[in-house]
Each structure stands twice: as C-alpha cells, then as structure tokens.
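Supplementary Note 3. Input sequence used for the single-chain structure prediction.
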Amino acid sequence: MQKDKIKKVFLRKIGQHTLFQAANLLCKSLRISFENKKVIDKLENENKKFVFAFWHGAMLLPWYLQRYKNFAGLTSKSKDGDLLARVLKLWKYQVVRGSSTEGGDIALGILLDFAKNISSISITPDGPTGPYRKMKAGAVIAAKKSGLPLILVGVGYKNKKNLKSWDKFTIPKPFTKTKVIFSDPIFVDKNLGYDETSAMIEKCDKVLNQIQTKAETF
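The predicted structure, written as discrete structure tokens, is reproduced below.
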C-alpha cells in the first residue's frame, strides 16, 4: 500500500514537472507582439500592484507572462485546479484555492489579504466552469475591494488548437505569431452599489471580449 502511494506521488511529480517544462518551452517559442504594454510596464516600474484578468481558455500565456513577479493566483479546487496550482507554484505564484461555487468568498478574502501586503492578483473571471467568456463578479469585486486597477488581457494565436472543453482551451502551436493586448487601467469605486457594480461587470465583460476578439484577428 505504501509503495503504491509513493508511486502515485512520484508519477504526479513527474507529470507536473513535465507540464511545467513543456509550458516554458512552448511559451518561449512564441513570436509575441504586445499592444498597450506601456500600461503594465508603468505599473511594474512604479512597483504598483494590480488585478490581472483573462479568459479561462486563454490562460496559458498570461500566467506565464507574470511568472516570478510576486503574483497571487486563484485556482479551483478541482483536479484540473490541482495541476494548475502545482505549475503556478513552480512559477512562484502564491496560490489560493477556491471558485464561485466552492470557497469563493473565503478565497477572495485571502487574495485581498495578499493584495494589501505584497501581491498583485491574477483571476480568470469566467472560471472554473463558465459560462464561456462570460464575466463573473470576482475580478471586479477584487478591484473594488482592494482599490487596485483592473487590467484585462486578450490573447490570440495565428496557429492553435482548441480543446473540446467548456472554455475551448487554446494551445498555441510552437513559434506561432501571438498577440497580447492589455486594456487601460479600470478603477472600480469601492462605494458602488449593487446595480452599479453589476453594470461595471457588464462593461468589463464587453471590454475583455472586444480585446480578445481583436487579439485573435490576424
């Protein structure tokens, strides 16, 4: 029994390191062009924190781009979330586990604690189960409660494969042309009421879909 347990742990470790190395090699190979990158550069040069949000199906490159940069990331408590959490830890993210359906309020509270102290925040606002590219409240609420600017990120690849998952997860082909588009900073007033906050979520949903569509146009 003990041997079986050791074997499972060993294989899991091998799997996560293989995925980690594969993700590094793939992302390093991409021919990336950035739009509005000055927004991110300015925030980082001034050591300012922010909330970084991107669609669940497009998350590979955004996670990679902010590796080793003092970020906290939100992942689900699912098996897929387990694997993502392990890779993010290798990229030196502070990982918080939770979702809109399980432990979400607690997880958001932990993220906000990180934001108050040392970390920017990364969130996939349609995760972990969709609907596809429909923004939930998490990213906007994080920006509202933390006072940090919200930066939305669109990512597109000229040559890619989409998985048959709810998020149509996108895997770029090596060396393909890639676009990354950043929104201008969006500040969410902490005094907004429910209806105004809902309107802001709809606005951010529209902006993120617009820049995502633009990034996917070659």
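DSSP finds seven helices and nine strands in the chain. The beta strands are 31-35, 51-53, 71-75, 94-97, 120-123, 150-157, 160-162, 170-172, 177-182.
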